[in-house]
Design goal:
Blueprint (H helix, E strand, L loop, with lengths): L2 H8 L7 H13 L13 H29 L12 H11 L1
Length: about 100
């Protein structure tokens, strides 16, 4: 064990005041507990906005990767030259 764990094991565990326990349980059962109204607590609208941002980023990444794959692929020639039949026969004869 490291020194911090040794110190933690040596600390005696204190019991909370019984009045606090009753107060906490009573307030929880009354329904008076509400979410914090701070801007840090995410609302459904915040979650929806976050999902939309992630979807937008994912779609943008897909589009960019497709552009890169298309750009790196061998492009066919824009025109095709038809060789003269006599020249074609001569080339075939040379290969044999």
């Amino acid at each position: 064990m490291n020194p911090l764990e040794d110190r933690i094991h040596k600390v005696a565990l204190r019991k909370p005041d019984p009045a606090w326990r009753d107060e906490i349980l009573n307030s929880a059962s009354d329904g008076s507990f509400r979410r914090s109204e701070s801007p840090i607590w995410p609302s459904p609208l915040a979650w929806a906005a976050l999902v939309m941002i992630w979807l937008g980023l994912a779609i943008a990444a897909q589009v960019e990767s497709r552009k890169e794959r298309t750009a790196s692929a061998a492009k066919p020639p824009r025109y095709f030259v038809v060789p003269d039949p006599k020249e074609l026969r001569a080339l075939i004869a040379q290969r044999r």
